[in-house]
Amino acid sequence: MAEILETERLILRHWAESDAGNMLLYASDPDVGPITGWPPHKSIDESCYVIDNILNGEEAYAICLKTDNKAIGTIELKMKDHADLAHGDDECELGFWLGKPFWGRGIMPEASRELLRHAFEDLGMKKVWCGYYDGNTKSMRVQEKLGFKYQGKKMNVDVPLMHEKRNINVNLMTKEDWSEMRTH
């Protein structure tokens, strides 16, 4: 478990309850949560609950700009017990969201590259899975930029927090794919 990961512009660190105000600020936006499978946050208590009970995994990180260290989104490597797509001890699933004011700035690819490095180099993962629901073109573009390879589609998957079913596009990056990209 890394306590802090850094990139040129970002700090990836564990969530703290003191981040709840920033989480509420960005997670209450109806353009952020629903496309990724959860309803907009309605209160600071809800954001505190999410920090304490959902974003409490060893590999769950707040995405923060180095300029102020305030949480603007989240990125996580979900291990097999908490992942929908990963199955073995050497597989995990990448999940993320970012506050709308920060879209289109290359922040998510930058954070994701560091988490992929961490997964393959520090944690010894052989496969990192990632998916997006139909219509989530921003997530699709991030995964394409990172070099994930399309594996197929899971149809009519339960999205419990939204009380509906959706289709998930499933992508994969292997350690070999990642190593090859790093050498080019």
- Assembly context of the chains: single chain
Low-pLDDT parts are none
SSE-based structural type: alpha+beta
Average pLDDT reading: 95
* Main sheet specs: 8 strands, mixed
Helical stretch count? 6
Shape: globular
Strand content: 25-35%
Q: What is the alpha-carbon Rg in Å?
A: 15 Å
- What is the C-level CATH assignment? Alpha Beta
Kindly report the spatial arrangement of strands forming the biggest sheet.
Answer: 1-2-3-4-5-6-8-7
| CATH superfamily descriptor | Gcn5-related N-acetyltransferase (GNAT)
**SSE string, helices as H and strands as E:** EEHHHEEEHEHEEH
Number-wise, the strands total 8
CATH architecture assignment: 3-Layer(aba) Sandwich
Could you say how many structural domains there are in total? 1
How far apart, in Å, are the first and last alpha carbons?
28 Å
Question: Level of helix content?
Answer: 25-40%
What would the CATH topology be?
A: Aminopeptidase
What would you say this structure looks like, in words?
By secondary structure, this protein is an alpha+beta fold. The protein has a single domain, classed as Aminopeptidase (3-Layer(aba) Sandwich). Helix content is 31%, strand content 32%. The protein is built from 6 helices and 8 strands; from the N terminus they run E-E-H-H-H-E-E-E-H-E-H-E-E-H. The chain has helices at residues 20-27, 33-36, 44-53, 107-122, 137-146, 175-183; strands spanning 4-6, 10-13, 60-65, 71-79, 91-98, 127-133, 149-159, 164-174. The protein has an 8-stranded mixed β-sheet, with helices on both faces.
